[in-house]
Amino acid sequence: MMFFQIFFALSFLFSFSNASDFCVGDLNAPQGPAGYSCKKADAVSVKDFVFSGLRAAGNTSNLLKVALTPAFSTQFPGVNGLDISLVRVDYAVGGRATMHTHPEAAEILVVIQGTLYAGFISTTNKVYTKTLEEGDVMTFPKGLMHFQINVGKSGALAFAFYSSASPGVYLMDNAWFANDMPTDILQETTFLDPDQIKKLKGLLGGTG
């Protein structure tokens, strides 16, 4: 009798351990601060742990001449709860990832092709910049403003890895000019010329 009790207890613990090996995101459920809720175990397949969306280059025909192809929990449910994710970044000549932050994650950028000028600004306003060549890696601490610019004569490619399955992004230019904040308020809070503010609002789709 004792043998069966021990066997049952061990079986229960083993099942619980397997169930907590991962938490594949249920993309049909709401996403909360901790990510998606877990998909039922019998609905999980190997497809949840494989993502092929980074094979092809993105379309860089846009204002910034940059294409971002993410593999976050929303696209890649297998990384849900694992505190990891990545994005493919394609840069046309002159392409740039303008000043932005990732509120939920630190970033490591790996240059696969081309030449990038990249950097970040610390909370003490110290600037750290470097020209990165193929094979170089640079890290951007969590929450700090950073950027990358393709300064080469051809297209560039990089992969960015994050310490979160959903790193979030906060674009400085969009935060200021892609909204309905009145121009006079922006003038008072940024010291920018009103004509320049209106020009940037028009460029980025803002009003006011």
UniProtKB/TrEMBL annotation:
Q: Identify the Gene3D superfamilies for this entry.
A: Jelly Rolls (2.60.120.10)
Q: What is its main location?
A: secreted
Top-rank taxon, per record: Eukaryota
Q: Where is the Cupin type-1 domain?
A: 52-198
Output the InterPro entries linked to this UniProt entry.
Cupin_1, Germin, Germin_Mn-BS, RmlC-like_jellyroll, RmlC_Cupin_sf
Q: Where does Mn(2+) bind?
A: 100, 102, 107, 146
Q: What GO MF terms are annotated? A: manganese ion binding
Q: List the disulfide bonds.
A: 23-38
Write one Pfam family the protein is assigned to. Cupin_1
Q: Which family does it belong to?
A: Belongs to the germin family.
Q: What is this protein called?
A: Germin-like protein
